Amino acid sequence: MSERLTGKVALITGAARGQGRSHALRLAREGADIIAVDLCENIEVNEYPLANPEDLAETARLVKDLGRRVVTRQADVRERGALIEAVDTAVAELGGLDIVVANAGICPLGANVPPRAFVDAVSVDLVGVINTVDAAFAHLRAGAAIVATGSVAGLLPGGADNPQNGPGGAGYGHAKRGVARFVHDLALQLAPHSIRVNAVHPTNVNTGMLQSAPMYRIFRPDLENPTREDAEPAFPAMNPMPVGYVEPSDISDAVAFLVSDEARYVTGLQLKVDAGALLAATTSGAPG
């Protein structure tokens, strides 16, 4: 690794596992110290289990093994005051903040989940991004970089608004569309201050969100209780490239570029890491 982030401090939400842990480790390998934030509790409407305190501790251990400093905080991105307090104390400990990766997310899929799932998905996946930026804002200076995790579901025509996906899927699609718009408009406001704002929009990513019972049922609605083995052949359906999903490290590569000085004039970008999924929708005549 080039250690192109040496001397920088990165805040990452949803850092206990999945994409968040991958981002933490990639940025640490590039030289950054890490503020790792995660709820470390389940959310009732979200059927698959979320990360736990042991997962967050493991992220911290792995970052330390790379020779970087790390501060962990258990905080809910839906709670702005608690998140601000967590970020303030962590920044005081590490001495600054240069990078924000607003990554925490849930996807409470299923036609039988309650309407509350719409609100919870929006609260975590969109309001949580806004709260993360708000918590970091006072600490950011010229040269800082913000990256939000969107989704190809927020860019595809119709997003995730399929009755089969239920209110949680609708909330997920709404939130990810909101993330794309928030990034665009915030980037315009912060550009004169040399603070950059970008989004990464993945296709399926090989994490606990994808590898879960509710997601398997979405991909195999013909089966009552599909397994991973049942769902795997269906995963590539949305991707023109012959893959069912990308790995968390593929998204981390994009994040590492966007927060580096190599992207110092890149802002307002909606970076798709989607194996061509949006191209296929556009080619079929849908708006891009």
Structural overview:
The protein is of the alpha/beta class. The chain has a single domain, classed as Rossmann fold (3-Layer(aba) Sandwich), CATH 3.40.50.720. Helices cover 41% and strands 12% of the residues. Helix 1 (18-29) packs across helix 8, helix 3 (80-94) packs parallel to helix 4 (116-137) and helix 4 (116-137) runs parallel beside helix 5. The model has no long low-confidence stretch (mean pLDDT 95).
Question: Topology, pairings included?
Answer:
Layout: E1 9-13, H1 18-29, E2 33-38, H2 53-65, E3 70-74, H3 80-94, E4 99-102, H4 116-137, E5 145-149, H5 166-190, E6 196-202, H6 213-219, H7 228-231, H8 248-259, E7 270-273, H9 277-283
Parallel strand pairs: 1-2, 1-4, 2-3, 4-5, 5-6, 6-7
Write out key terms for the chains shown.
alpha/beta, Rossmann fold, 288 residues, 41% helix, seven-stranded parallel beta sheet
Instruction: Quote the average pLDDT.
Output: 95
The outline comes out as globular
How many structural domains?
Answer: 1
N-end to C-end Cα span: 35 Å
Summing up helix and strand content along with how strands pair, one would put the structural category as alpha/beta
Which CATH architecture? 3-Layer(aba) Sandwich
Q: State the major sheet.
A: 7 strands, parallel
Order of helices and strands: EHEHEHEHEHEHHHEH
CATH classification class: Alpha Beta
